[in-house]
Amino acid sequence: MLTVDNLDVWFGQAPQRVDAVKGVSFAVAQGESFGLVGESGSGKSTILRAITGLAPTWSGRVTIEGEALSGGKRSRSFYKTVQMVFQDPYASLHPRHSVDGVLSETLHLQGEKNVDKRINELLEAVGLGQGFRFRYPHQLSGGQRQRVAIARALAAKPRLLLLDEPTSALDVSVQAEILNLLGDLRREHGLTFVMVSHDLAVVSHMCDRLAVMRGGELVEVMDAATLRSGSAQSDYARNLIRASMGYARA
Ligand code: ADP
Ligand code: MG
Fold first, then answer.
1. Distance between CA 20 and CA 199 in Å, rounded?
2. Residue 36 neighbours by CB under 8 Å, 6+ apart
3. Is residue 15 reached through a cis peptide bond, with omega within 30 degrees of 0 on the bond before it?
């Protein structure tokens, strides 16, 4: 579904240049759920942003379903395959656009004919129902906003969803609901996920495999069973796991 080969991403020019991602390579199979973990600033979001064309300068090779991405803007067909859900549902929805406005705009861009029917289907799919259709963001809770953002992503019928800490801006009580929704949607639609999280318990629950990032570099790729057993290869990954989950099993 996705391959990332020797990806470098940087911001600015020397001497201010920041090398946010350095020589990162990994591959995600069709239908797989792949986690990206690591401390704040380790380059996780930047990898997703490079894939979706939101990072200005990068090098390396990225393929989606075997097709290499080029620099510059992504094509419309790219967004039919790949969609992103951001961390902060307060920032990612325009305050003056209703739920109906957000979804119908996306559906029109996709060339959808039966917009009414699709909006209702999408609202049902994310557990909101039609009563939410004409609400504005300020009339929604954080969890409900994230459901709208997920509906917007699904409107394009993507095959790959890039999820950047999709629950970390939400109340703890709501996080599990959104994670369960995402898991259900992945199974129903056969989606592939790349999910960034700093919460290893979430990744262990949601992902088949994960990559550990540190200072822009990929330290190690492991499967979820390795994460749960705490038997990572590198000291760094083992310490990260111990710090995040280990108190329960230390
Ligand atoms: P993470 O998502 O793992 O917390 P990021 O990918 O957001 O980390 O950031 C990686 C590094 O790139 C950090 O050092 C961050 O400060 C830097 N960075 C991210 N975005 C920009 C930007 N637009 N301009 C300059 N530096 C940036
Ligand atoms: Mg981030």
1. 21
2. 44, 47, 48, 194, 195, 196, 197, 210, 211, 213
3. yes
pLDDT, one tens digit for every residue, the chain (250 residues): 999 999 999 999 999 999 999 999 999 999 999 999 999 999 999 999 999 999 989 999 999 999 999 877 888 889 999 999 998 888 889 999 999 999 999 999 888 999 999 999 999 999 999 999 999 999 999 999 999 999 999 999 999 999 999 999 999 889 999 999 999 999 999 999 999 998 899 999 999 999 999 999 999 999 999 999 988 999 999 999 988 876 555 4
Out of 4, 24, 46, 162, give the residue to mutate to test ligand 1, the one with the largest number of ligand atoms within 8 Å of its CB: 46
Q: Which atom of ligand 1 lies nearest, measured to the CA of 196?
A: 2
Q: Ligand 1 centroid to 220 CA: how many Å?
A: 20
Pocket of ligand 1 (CB under 6 A): 11, 18, 20, 38, 40-46
Domain ranges in the chain are: 2-244
How far is residue 163's CA from residue 149's CA, in Å, rounded to a whole number? 11
Provide CB contacts within 8 A for 193, sequence distance 6+.
Answer: 32, 33, 34, 160, 161, 163, 182, 186, 206, 207
SS3 29: coil
Mutate-to-test residue for ligand 1 from 9, 10, 11, 217, highest number of ligand atoms within 8 A of CB: 11
Is the whole model's pTM more than 0.70, yes or no? yes
Domain 2-244 - what CATH class? alpha beta
Alpha carbons within 13 angstroms on the beta-carbon side of residue 36 total 30
